What does this fold into?
Amino acid sequence: MTHDGSPRFTPPQSEAWHALRAQVAARFRALNDEIRHYPRPIARCDEQLTRLIEQRDRVRALQERMTAVEAPESDAAQLRDILEEALGDDEIAAMAPRLRSLIGGSE
It folds into this structure.
């Protein structure tokens, strides 16, 4: 672990990790905003709202896992697992090829 609490990465991996964290945080904010502004009259019976809430909950869990993996015992396998989890969100998956190559996963 580095002095700033990040896992030990090469400089390109560190850049990718911070970019992924920023993308996940931005996705979480966007989902929260979309849910906050969702029309109230149909909210209880709307499948789209349910899907948004589920996406938000997955992204929040991903943020928590990313924070937890920044522990000294973190390894490349844990980082690849987090990346694979992140790829479940289309918005985050757009970054996948570069992140996979930098973190050490396969394309």
The mean pLDDT is 75. DSSP finds five helices and no strands in the chain. The helical segments are 11-36, 47-68, 76-86, 90-93, 96-103. The radius of gyration is 16 Å.
